[in-house]
Amino acid sequence: MFSFTSTGGKIDSSINRGIVPYIFRQGVQNYHSIGSLLPIKGTEPKFFQLYIYDTENEISYRQKCFGEKDQSISIDSDIIEDIKLMSDSNNVLVRSYKMRGLLHSHICLFMNSDNKLPTVKFIDPIISVEIQDIIEDPKLYSFVNEFMIHGPCGAENMNCPCMVDKKCSKSFPKQFCNHSSVDQNDFSLSRRRNDGHFVEKSGVRYPSMVRLTFHLPNQQQIVYGEDDDIDYVLDKPSVAASKFTSWMECNVIDSEARELTYVEFHTKFVWILNGRFWKRRKVGKAIGRIHSGSPNLGEAYFLMILLNKVKGPTSFDEIRAVNGETHSSFRDACYALGLLDGDKEYIDVIKEATHSGYGFYLRFLFATLLMCNSMSKPEVIWENTWEYLADGILYNQRQRFKSPELSLGGDELKNLTLFKIEQNLL
Predict the structure, then answer these.
(1) Which of 107, 281, 286, 361 fits 357 for a cystine, CB–CB 3.0-4.6 Å?
(2) pLDDT tens-digit readout, 181-210
(3) In 3-state terms, what secondary structure has residue 340?
C-alpha cells in the first residue's frame, strides 16, 4: 500500500494456512522493480505510481491494494490518509517521487559559441528560481507550492531529514540574488529576487529571511551590458533609487518606518521591485539580515554596524549623527555610540556573520582580522567566539572517518579549528 518497489518475490500460500506466518519464497537473484511512471493501460496503479498518478483518487487506490481481493478486509481510509500526510511531510523519498509527477526534463545542451548566453542580461529572463505570482499564474504557483518547496526545516522543524548538526544540509533558506552569478565554490546561483511573493508550508512562510544590501554614498552597484551607452545607463531611475536609499526616503514620509532599524524594517515593509519603492507589508513575515563584512572594508564596515543600531534615518548624514552632532565618518559615529570599545566590535561581527556564513567563512574572517593586526587582544576574541569558528569541524571529521557517532572534546575541537585558521594564514 505504501511501497515504492516490488522485490519480485511471491507469497507461497500452499504450505501454511490460516493465521500462521506467511512463507516468502525467493529464487535466484533478487531485483527491485520500480516500473513505469504510469500504470499499464487497463491496470490499477501500484508501488511508486500511487504517489504521482491520479492523486485525487489516491486513497481509494491504496484501499484497493488489499480490500479488492478480499472483501472481508476493511481498511480505514482515515488511517491511510493520516499515514499519507505524514509521509508527504517527512519522507524525502516521497517528496522526491511526487516531484517526478510534474512534467519536466533534464537536458544538457552543448551550444555553439555564437549562440551561448554570456551575460546575466541574457540568462536571467530564461532561468530563475523564484516563486510565481499567484494572480498571474495560479496553476503554476500551486505546483510550486505543493511540489517544489523545501522543508520546513531549521528552527521550525529540527526533525526534518535534511538537518545535520542543527543546520540544513541543503543550505536552506537560500539567500536572495538579484542576478545569476557563481559563488566562491564555482556553483551557479540562479536569480532569486525578493519580489514579495511567498508560499506557506505547514504553517511556515517562505521566504523567511531577507538579505539586506547597503552601500556608501554614491557607491551603489550598477548592472549594465557591455554594449550599453553609459549616459543611458546613468540616467536610469534605478541608479539613483537603490533599495537602500529608498529605505531612507520611506523614512521621510512614514512615521512608523522611523521607529525601525534597517534590519527591523522588513518585518513591516516589502520592496516592490518593478516600481522600486517600499510599501506596507499586508501579509507574510520576513527577517532582515545585513550581510557580514570585514574591517578591511573600511567605512562600509562601520556603516554596517550602525545600520543595526540607528532607527529611521532619512539621509547618510543622519546615520552619522549622534546626540545632535554629525560626525565626519561612520567610524567616528561608532566610537561616539560606544560600539567600538575594546574588541567588542570584532566579537559582534563574528557572531553576526553566523547568521549568513558557514564555519569556513568565519574562520577565514578571523584569519583576516589577525592579518590586519587591528585586534588588541586576539585571545579574548578567540575565547568568546571559538565555538562559532568551530562550526562544521565535527561534521567534517565524521565524514572523513565515516563515523557518524564520532565525538570530540573541547580541546580537540579547539586545536582542529586553530589548525584550519592557520591554513588560511599560510
Answers:
(1) 361
(2) 776 666 677 888 877 677 777 766 665 567
(3) coil
Look at the chain and report how many structural domains it folds into. Answer: 3
Residue 177 lies in a domain: yes
Report how far residue 418's alpha carbon sits from residue 88's, in angstroms, rounded to the nearest whole number.
43
129, 236: one domain? yes
pLDDT, tens digit, 9 for 90 and up, residues 368-415: 888 876 675 688 889 989 999 999 899 889 888 888 888 889 899 999
Backbone φ, ψ for residue 323 (5° rounding): 55, 45
Residues in the chain where the model's pLDDT stays below 50: 101
C-alpha cell at 166: 542543527
Using the 3D structure, point to which of 99, 122, 145 is the last residue of a domain.
Answer: 99
**306 and 201 share one domain:** yes
Last-in-domain residue among 292, 325, 342: 342
What are phi and psi for residue 78, nearest 5 degrees?
A: -65, -40
Instruction: Please give the pLDDT value at position 359.
Output: 85
Structural domain boundaries enclosing 84: 10-99
Asked if the structure places residue 107 within a domain, the reply is no
Q: Tell me how many helices (H) and strands (E) the chain has.
A: 17, 14
* Domain membership flag for residue 218: yes
Q: Report pLDDT for 316.
A: 94
Please name the amino acid found at residue 101. Answer: G
Return the amino acid letter for 172. F
Query: Residue 286's closest CA among 204, 213, 214, 215?
Result: 204
Whether residues 152 and 245 share a domain: the answer is: yes
Owner of C-alpha cell 541608479: 239
**Amino acid making up residue 331:** R
Radius of gyration of the chain (CA): 28
CA 335 – CA 341 distance, rounded (Å): 7
